[in-house]
Amino acid sequence: MGTREIGLPQRVPGTGLPARVTIWEVGPRDGLQNEKAIVPVAVKLEFLDRLAEAGLTTLEATSFVSPKWVPQLADAEELLAGLNKREGVRYPVLVPNERGLKRALEAGCPDIAIFGSATETFAQRNLNSGLEKQFEMFEPVLAGANGLNVRAYLSMCFGDPWEGPVPAEQVVRVGKRLLELGCTQLSLGDTIGVATVGQVEGLLAAFADAGVPADKLAVHFHDTYGQALANTVAALRCGVSTVDSSAGGLGGCPYAESATGNLATEDLLWTLEGLGIEHGVDLDALVKTSAWMAEQLGRPSPSRVVRALAG
Amino acid sequence: MGTREIGLPQRVPGTGLPARVTIWEVGPRDGLQNEKAIVPVAVKLEFLDRLAEAGLTTLEATSFVSPKWVPQLADAEELLAGLNKREGVRYPVLVPNERGLKRALEAGCPDIAIFGSATETFAQRNLNSGLEKQFEMFEPVLAGANGLNVRAYLSMCFGDPWEGPVPAEQVVRVGKRLLELGCTQLSLGDTIGVATVGQVEGLLAAFADAGVPADKLAVHFHDTYGQALANTVAALRCGVSTVDSSAGGLGGCPYAESATGNLATEDLLWTLEGLGIEHGVDLDALVKTSAWMAEQLGRPSPSRVVRALAG
């Protein structure tokens, strides 16, 4: 048709937005652990290297959770041993408990993440713990990780499949406790993807009121109800400048009835590009990488940008 | 798993947003004209009736464009003759030109929409006209439609596949001209889905600066790059309170490399519900309708909300 290739959006800066956003790429961990397929370690290593090559500087590489629960990431040691660690790139790993921390430290990881819950029921069911009891589990991890970067994921910050809506005060209380225990960053997760923009602004205002600065916070949206990008923009307006996303929207399946993937990194990049917010990533290289990974998984990418540009 | 059904998001109102939004449902027209399948008229009639039953009050029913160009809507007369018109529901139809207007008037439609272009190339290629010349085409239509509601679609308001970025001043100039010709509402279309939130705010500010009140404007986003909902929220913040969307995201295909569907009405409703903005639609009934229509089309709905709730 002779149409002109539009590879990037027009730049029209917004007001009151951060000048630079750090993308915390969770595709290799949160994405792949939610895919049906078990991806060979060689493919994961190529994936991680291509993500770094595209300019992403924070790559959550894997998880030291029990292989019984997450067989998709059972190869954590092998993966880390084979990793081509690049200058200027962080490769944090998820550790669920002390045993996970031990494995991470033995593998030479200076950058870890723990996984907490904002609700009682999820803490019981997913962490085999409780809303208060989880801190006992994290204390020795944080003691052992003294001096490391320790991100805390806080799950179910907006809605919980058993409890329904989650009060902002409860999320702030649990989040502050994790920061007091020594966590260096909180990632506020909408694990089931139900949040809308007013709720996001409300929770971030509650954190600000409680004296937690926005630079201690990251946001982590799943696109289950199509709200992930709108919610992310709302968070940027509130001063948050670390955003979790997964390349190609990994972890969601376009065929599945319920698509529960993370916000796609490419769809986020399109917004950041348009707003003139610095991000350091080569969109074209990332789209090619996600299209390649979709081939490995044998299904199209749920990222709209990948589908629009990779054709 | 005994999880609690979350059918609606938590209500947390935002600030500076309209109290009520009118959804201009374009699924039966813009949606179906972009589907490969030609849907039988009986199915379309059931679809329209179910949309009205769900509470939608503005249903763009069909188009009087030449069947040669849009065979999907070749049954416009038959459809309108069979329509179960409900009290309080508007059934606007698209008319491309005088001949289309004549067909619409003969079919008893008091509510029409014309289809203009914000760019020279699209006006030439799609309207067989030109950026200035299009007004000559619309003048007799508007004269003939004296006293009717006449919405003007303005295509390519943010980016054009041939020309690239579209200057806001150009869009405002063409838009004002259409209002001066007698159009009662302008629907600003991101036909290729490239816009981001800053650009949306910029264009709406330019219309405000030119003296066009927000209540003369509607927004019409396609989700090609995943930006439709974030852009819609940006428009709501600018005071726009009429939003175009298509039930189930009709017109986009989850399998296609390039998904060019409209914003899904259900994904919009999720946001409006969460923000406590009045809309008058029963989400559950709409989800069931879109799931049914997806079955008719033989493919899953691209709406995330439909996929999450219809399972």
UniProtKB/TrEMBL annotation, chains A, B:
GO terms for biological process: ketone body biosynthetic process; L-leucine catabolic process. PROSITE patterns: PYR_CT. Residues 21-287 form the Pyruvate carboxyltransferase domain. Coiled coil: none annotated. One of its GO terms (molecular function) is metal ion binding. CDD domains: DRE_TIM_HMGL (cd07938). InterPro entries: Aldolase_TIM, HMGL, PYR_CT. Keywords: Lyase, Metal-binding. It holds the Pfam family HMGL-like. Signal peptide: none annotated. Belongs to the HMG-CoA lyase family. This is Hydroxymethylglutaryl-CoA lyase. The lineage of its organism: Bacteria, Bacillati, Actinomycetota, Actinomycetes, Pseudonocardiales.
